[in-house]
Design brief:
5-stranded antiparallel β-sheet; 26% helix; disordered N terminus; globular; alpha+beta
Length: 715
């Protein structure tokens, strides 16, 4: 720290005059401070428990100089009394330095720009307070009480926000009021599961195998094999009715055949907070979180349980609460009706009645240091003085895009004996696969597995054309994988397969590993919800309102170790530590798409090197260059659509350019060592030193949703 100035809150705040660094403002109990620091820097966090004899252990990269400053406090004013280099670090060994007494707990933070992204981001003040013991002085506690009073809840004599309460406390409170074991046997029927949910007021249940135990003490409860929720039960019933099954047949189905397998269950730890669990549930769209402690499920926590914890029993019932909270809100009048859709949605709703169409463009670029014969250099020095590789046949990535016709799932079964009119509708399938390059060390060509997997996906769909119902992406991926194993092709790859339903305006997909899908959409900030508005940039300075509407979930065992489909020549027993998975372990989901959306399916070569916000900027540049949107004016685009000017043929012709622009940008960033890529930033967060880009194969399938079919093939 080169300079430090701290004054009373009532006085005018001054900036420090230290050299270099970025200005950052931090708050203490009764003062505001400005800190200016050099970069890179080491932050030593001081608390009221520090004495004159306290020490801190630092691990720095040599050579580094450690500056230790001492401070004095008088009448609430903190003043630096000395600042001198205490020692020079010459080795990687931990170094112990002395710390001075500080009367106020201070947390110095520094927000790094991308130019300094090689320095890890420091924890924010709120995160630090979540993790450290509450040792603040009385003045600090009093200050926090006054600022957090509205959202405060009393817990064990301490005041804390509900978002900071450990999830174990929520579980204790729930079990104290009523103990219901959320368990059902894997052989139970859907009917039994529904009755158990209603009687126990349960949103979810753990599925157990009573015939197996994990220990002597778990003999009665059995071994957990999965999880099911009330939403899963509704899905089971909907699937059965769609297949024209009788009500009794649906109700007698076994829960174990439709549950979420144990390998895909998302869980919480007892020490995690309500805020953390709410964020996980919101991001993943799940209703229940099992709380896991020492290999045992202590119970299930739902959003309702978290909300109930913040309301005391006396605030629920009684005359006062009824009159205040319920009396004026209970009961609807007999002439109640539904409101008309908002004005800003009417144009979109008019388009909902018509089918949408998709223009597709593909670009692929191999690893820049690929060599003939299947070799690959780690860097330019290994590669040698020659032009970078551009031959896509050398890429370990593979893809397919196929437009076909299949029987509508809402019609009959598609059999010839059925006396129903079978409706066929066009669908578009697409997929990418990224072969795992480490197979090269064992004399296996990594390209063979991924390329064959995509070929078999296409073969399956071609065989099913005009004969069967629409096949889900996960089924396509599972059957193609079985065919690859039957052919005894050694290797592994990540995979993502998607299906565009033009009639229902949906994109279904199944993703395993670190490939994925993003959806870009123009959302008018004037009418968008608060969470969708761009509040960082003033309205007059915004070029457009393009937003990231969806990002698919990726799956990794650890950093740079994604889930993958693989075959070694023999079956490998499933284990928690294996990165080999099946199509059933993939993340399967559906997205509702709109006219004008840009959908990108790509391998990790894109996402590891190009930030998602930069991807959105490139997509906007492509739109504006070709006149699909002018000046970010969404209403003008909708008027053009209403007038019949769809520009579909131009979109079909130019969409490949978008895929190429993204591949080129990924290649440029992968070779740039001056700015950290998303891969490098994530590597540092996982304690791995990596700077610059990540050279890799890159494949991008760019899809533009339009309102009319093009006059030529989508590819």
């Amino acid at each position: 720290v080169t300079d430090f100035t701290c004054i009373d809150k009532g006085k005018r705040e001054k900036e420090s005059k230290g050299k270099g660094g970025r200005l950052t403002k931090t708050h203490m109990a009764s003062t505001s401070s400005f800190v200016r620091a050099r970069t890179p820097l080491v932050v030593v966090k001081a608390s009221s428990s520090i004495t004159h004899s306290s020490t801190a252990t630092l691990r720095l990269r040599p050579p580094s100089t450690c500056y230790v400053s001492s401070y004095t406090s008088k009448n609430g004013l903190v003043k630096r009394s000395s600042c001198a280099p205490s020692s020079t670090i010459a080795s990687k060994a931990p170094t112990t330095v002395g710390l001075s007494t500080t009367l106020c707990r201070v947390n110095y933070t520094m927000n790094m720009s991308r130019a300094f992204s090689s320095v890890p981001d420091w924890k924010t003040k709120q995160e630090a307070e979540d993790n450290e013991p509450k040792q603040a002085s009385a003045s600090i506690v009093h200050s926090q009480q006054s600022s957090d009073n509205e959202n405060a809840h009393k817990l064990g004599g301490k005041y804390t926000r509900l978002s900071q309460v450990p999830i174990s406390e929520i579980l204790k409170a729930k079990h104290t009021l009523r103990w219901v074991e959320p368990v059902i046997c894997h052989t139970s029927t859907v009917k039994t599961a529904i009755q158990t949910c209603i009687e126990g007021n349960l949103s979810g249940m753990m599925v157990v195998d009573r015939d197996e135990t994990t220990s002597e003490s778990s003999r009665e409860r059995g071994r957990v094999v999965g999880m099911t929720t009330s939403r899963d039960l509704l899905r089971m019933m909907a699937a059965g009715f769609k297949n024209n099954e009788g009500a009794e047949e649906v109700m007698n189905k076994t829960v174990g055949n439709f549950m979420t397998p144990i390998s895909q269950v998302i869980y919480a730890r007892p020490e995690e907070t309500v805020g953390t669990c709410r964020a996980i549930m919101a991001k993943l769209g799940i209703k229940c979180l099992p709380v896991l402690s020492h290999g045992r499920v202590e119970g299930l926590v739902t959003a309702r349980d978290m909300s109930d914890y913040g309301v005391e029993a006396k605030d629920r019932g009684g005359k006062k609460n009824y009159l205040r909270d319920i009396s004026e809100r209970v009961g609807l009048s007999s002439n109640t009706s539904m409101a008309e859709p908002p004005t800003y949605l009417r144009a979109h709703l008019a388009l909902e009645q018509k089918p949408l169409f998709m223009n597709v463009g593909v670009a692929e670029m191999p690893h820049p240091f690929k060599t003939g014969g299947g070799g690959c250099g780690m860097n330019a020095r290994d590669f040698g003085p020659r032009d970078l590789t551009t031959d896509p046949d050398m890429s370990e990535d593979a893809y397919f895009v196929m437009e076909t016709e299949m029987v509508d799932n809402n019609e009959g079964s598609g059999s010839e004996d059925e006396d129903v009119v079978v409706t066929k509708r066009p669908v578009v399938y697409m997929g990418v696969a990224d072969g795992v390059g480490s197979w090269r060390e064992y004399g296996v060509d990594p390209r063979e597995f991924s390329h064959r997997l995509m070929e078999e996906c296409e073969n399956l769909l071609r065989e099913a054309t005009n004969k069967s119902r629409v096949i889900t992406p996960s089924t396509v991926l599972a059957n193609a994988f079985e065919r690859v194993k039957e052919e005894n092709i050694i290797g592994s790859s990540t995979a993502c397969v998607g299906l565009f339903d033009s009639v229902r305006h949906q994109l279904h997909f199944s993703n395993l590993g670190d490939s994925g899908i993003i959806v870009l959409r123009h959302i008018d900030s004037n009418v968008a919800g608060a969470l969708k508005r761009d509040r960082k940039t003033p309205r007059v300075q915004r070029k457009s309102d393009i937003r990231i509407a969806f990002v698919s979930q990726q799956q990794l065992k650890s950093f740079n170790h994604p889930f993958q489909l693989g075959w070694t020549g023999e079956d490998i027993a499933e284990s928690d530590g294996s990165s080999f998975k099946t199509a059933a372990d993939s993340c399967a989901s559906s997205i509702h798409v709109r006219r004008g959306d840009i959908i990108l399916m790509a391998t990790d070569g894109l996402f590891d090197n190009v930030d998602i916000d930069d991807i959105a900027e490139i997509a906007l540049e492509w739109e504006q260059r070709n006149g699909f949107i002018r000046g970010g004016d969404i209403s003008a685009r909708e008027k053009r659509w209403a007038a019949g000017a769809s520009m579909t043929d131009l979109s079909c012709e130019k969409v490949t350019e978008l895929a190429e622009m993204l591949c080129i940008k990924a290649r440029e960033n992968s070779l740039d060592n001056s700015v950290d890529s998303p891969f490098a930033i994530l590597a540092k967060e996982n304690d791995i030193m990596w700077s610059g880009g990540m050279p890799d194969d890159c494949t991008v399938i760019a899809m533009h949703i339009v309102g009319e079919p093009a006059h030529k093939s989508i590819l």
